[in-house]
Task: structure prediction
Amino acid sequence: MLDQDTVLTSTMPEIVATASATVDFPELRERVRALCAEFPDSYWRELDLTRDYPTRFVEALTASTLLSALIPTQYGGLGLGLSEASVILQEINRSGGHSAACHAQMYTMGALLRHGSNEQKQKYLPRIAAGELRLQAFSITEKEAGSDTTSIVTTAERDGDNYVINGHKSWTSRIEQSDLLIVLARTSAKTAAKASRSDGLSLFLVDLRHVRAEQPDAIVVEPVRTMFNYATNQVTYRNLRIPADALLGTEGQGFRHVLDGWNAERILLAAEAVGDGLWFTERAVAYAQQRSVFGSSIGAYQGVAFPIAEAYMQLRAADLLRIDAARRFDTEQSCGPEANMAKYLCSTASWAAANACLDTHGGYGFVDEYDVERKFRETRMFSVAPVNNNLIKAFVATNVLGLPKSY
Ligand SMILES: Cc1cc2nc3c(=O)[nH]c(=O)nc-3n(C[C@H](O)[C@H](O)[C@H](O)COP(=O)(O)OP(=O)(O)OC[C@H]3O[C@@H](n4cnc5c(N)ncnc54)[C@H](O)[C@@H]3O)c2cc1C
Result:
């Protein structure tokens, strides 16, 4: 068995330099890399084994202010765009880390920034930027509805100065590590008319600190163990009473508010996927150069080299679309097609790199101390959630190419 540390130290710098030759925001990347260097493979590997939350990493990222990238400077954040935010997440994944621990703070920021009231923004944003509060959880998906979000059945009924939430969410990640939670619930029945079937859903910003102190039984959290380290849960809302001013945006328009954030989420996720893909590429190249079988470096065998080269080309091309989508988002141009296509292409390119890396490592790809199997499990998620690649193809077929809608 090759000594993994020797493999990496002898070949990594050269490969990193090559892969970085044309990338955006070099100084920001350097800053993220310096922080991530304090969290080596062993840190993530041990947490993966115990399925524990990377608290120390999230605290360091918060203290560095990088996690407040999207919060405007007037609220104490860095006031950066999605282009920079996506680079931060990309570098975390590229370092061997897993930005799933904290990416929701960026994914959900758009809902609060665009649809939050001035009071909500004043109350929460400075404290999120200062690292005193975490907004890491959003609760949307339900078993009955799946990808068809407009069919969710969790309700929020108005009762005087309150809303009362009842229902079940099959997925709500990081709720136990978060102080604030965004929930999507139905405030009026779904209509049959196609044009208005997304009406009647509303978005709420729930202060979990108050719920934990005053209504500890109103949110029942059941951790779900998944194939990788992801602090996700099933959640049941039992007469959860929240103040009426927890409403985010306009009552009945919550689905549209969520849609607004989906482009940002897809772009950020695309960046994370490319980060993983570059990590796989670097590891595969390093290993292929060092490992000798039948008297030659396995990197000389085209059966090994070509899949790595192919995946790398796919990654570079996909990342260009991610850069374009982020630029469009930041300059307030339409970016739905680009964000969706970037998510699709980056997730498939990352998966190609994952397979090439695993194959390159042969049997050692399955050994946890090489970390390939861990990243392999992590990167598989990008094709499935938060939106499945089938739904992206359906979006492009219908909304970009004008083909009939299939559902
Ligand atoms: C680890 C993890 C963490 C998550 N965390 C959260 C969270 O914090 N908050 C949250 O709200 N959700 C979360 N989710 C849920 C995630 O967003 C959903 O898994 C995703 O939206 C897909 O829904 P589903 O799993 O019900 O799949 P389904 O909708 O049941 O889809 C199953 C299959 O059918 C296909 N399919 C469905 N409809 C169509 C169609 N029209 N055309 C073609 N194919 C179709 C899909 O592509 C897929 O292959 C999480 C999921 C995972 C795995």
